[in-house]
Known about the structure:
Elements: H1 5-8, E1 14-17, E2 23-26, E3 31-34, H2 47-61, H3 65-80, H4 99-112, E4 116-118, H5 123-135, E5 140-144, H6 150-160, E6 166-170
Helix pairs in contact: 2-3, 5-6
Amino acid sequence: MRTSAPIADGCELVITKRGAAGATATDGHADYSVASAVTSVIDTVGAGDAFAAGIIVGMFEGSDMDTNLSLASALAARVVSACGDVDRLPRRRDLDLPCEQMSSILETIRQYGVVAIVRAADKREALQTIRVLVRSGLRVLEVSLVTPNALDLIRMVVTEVPGGVHIGVGDRPDA
C-alpha cells in the first residue's frame, strides 16, 4: 500500500473505506487497518460521514491512526445499526464503551421497544417510579438530569433495583 498513487502525488494520508471489510490507511511510511465493528446493518445513510467524523475527532485529539480508525469504525457501526443518520451519532464520552457492549445495549432497546424517561421532583419519588416500571417489565430507563440528584439515583438503582435494568442519563434543556 505504501506505493499508493495519491501518496506519490503529494497526499499526506490516504484512507480507504471498505464497508464490511473494514478500512485501511497509509501515510507513505506506515500502513494501518481496522476491521469493521460487528453490528446489524439496518440503514447505511450517513455511515461515511460518521466514519469521517471519527477520523477528524481522533486527529483533533492527537490520537494515533490505529485509534482514529477504530473510532471511525465504531461511529460508522452506530449509524448503520438503525434508520437515519445524525440521530445515531453518540457523544464523545459514549464511545468509550466497547462496540460489542454498545451493540448489546442497542439490541436490548430494540427488544423492549420502549425507553422509559423518568423525571421526578426528588430522588425518592424517582426511585419508586423506577421500581414500578421494572416490576411491570420495562428494563430500559433514562433518568432526566432535571431530577434532583440524578447521578446518585442511578447509583442507587444499580445497587437496589433487581432485574437487569439498562439505565442511562439524559436531558432536553428545552423540555
